[in-house]
Design brief:
The protein has about 230 residues and is mainly alpha-helical. It has 8 helices and no strands.
Length: about 230
C-alpha cells in the first residue's frame, strides 16, 4: 500500500472523531444560538424603539465588518486582559454565535420585510394580535424564503469552524495539524482534511436541495389553494 494512502487511513479516525466531538457540536450550537440572536435582532430592527435599533445596528456593523478570526482572537486572547477568562470551546461558541447572528439577522429582516402587508391586514382582520400574526402568519411564510440563504450560512459555518483551531479548539483541522506535527506530512493531511470538509459540505448541499424542493412544492400547493 502506498505510504500516502496508509497515512490517510491511519489518520482518518482521529479526524472523524474530532469532527464528531468538536466540529459538529460547535457548528450546530453556533447556528442554533446565532439563529435565535439573528431573529431577535431582526425583529428589533423592524419593530423596536430607536435607541435599541441603534444598538443592534452597531452590533451588526461590527460583526459584519471585521474578520471572524479577529473576533475569535479578541474573545479568547483579548478578554482575559479585562479579567474575563473563557475556555477555548466557549470562546469559539460565543464568537461564531455572534458572527452568525449578525449575518442571519439581515437575512431574516429581509424575508420578513418581503411578506406582503396584506398578510398583516388579513391576520388583524380575523382578530389576531401582533404576536399571533407574526408567529402564525408572517414567520411561516418568511421561513420558506429564508431557507436557501440560511442553508448557505450553515454550510459556510461548517467550514469556518476550522478557524477555531487558531484558539486551540481541538476540532478536525487542529487534529490534522497535530498529526502533521508528528508525521511531517502536511500536504497529505491537509488534503485529507479538505476532502472531509468537502464531503460534509456536499452532503449538506444535497439536503438543502431536497428541502428547497419540498418547500417549493408546499408553496405551490398553497398558491393553488389561494386561487
Amino acid at each position: 500500500m502506498p505510504h500516502w494512502l496508509q497515512l490517510m487511513l491511519d489518520s482518518l479516525w482521529p479526524l472523524l472523531w474530532a469532527a464528531a466531538v468538536f466540529t459538529t457540536p460547535l457548528t450546530l450550537l453556533s447556528f442554533a444560538f446565532g439563529l435565535f440572536v439573528g431573529l431577535a435582532v431582526a425583529l428589533i430592527r423592524l419593530f423596536g424603539p430607536k435607541p435599541l435599533v441603534a444598538v443592534v445596528r452597531f452590533y451588526v456593523w461590527i460583526f459584519r465588518g471585521t474578520p471572524l478570526l479577529v473576533q475569535l482572537f479578541l474573545i479568547f486572547y483579548g478578554l482575559p486582559s479585562a479579567g474575563i477568562l473563557l475556555d477555548a470551546f466557549t470562546a469559539a461558541l460565543i464568537g461564531f454565535t455572534l458572527n452568525v447572528g449578525a449575518y442571519t439577522s439581515e437575512i431574516i429582516r429581509a424575508v420578513i420585510g418581503s411578506v406582503p402587508k396584506g398578510q398583516w391586514e388579513a391576520a388583524y382582520s380575523i382578530g389576531m394580535t401582533w404576536r399571533q400574526a407574526m408567529w402564525r402568519t408572517i414567520l411561516p411564510q418568511a421561513a420558506r424564503v429564508a431557507v436557501p440563504p440560511l442553508s448557505n450560512t450553515f454550510i459556510s459555518l461548517v467550514k469556518d469552524t476550522s478557524l477555531a483551531a487558531a484558539i486551540t479548539v481541538p476540532e478536525m483541522f487542529q487534529a490534522a495539524q497535530r498529526i502533521v506535527a508528528v508525521t511531517y506530512e502536511p500536504l497529505i493531511l491537509y488534503v485529507e482534511a479538505a476532502i472531509l470538509y468537502l464531503a460534509m459540505s456536499s452532503v449538506l448541499s444535497a439536503l438543502q436541495t431536497r428541502l428547497e424542493g419540498r418547500l417549493n412544492r408546499y408553496g405551490g400547493f398553497l398558491e393553488e389553494a389561494r386561487v
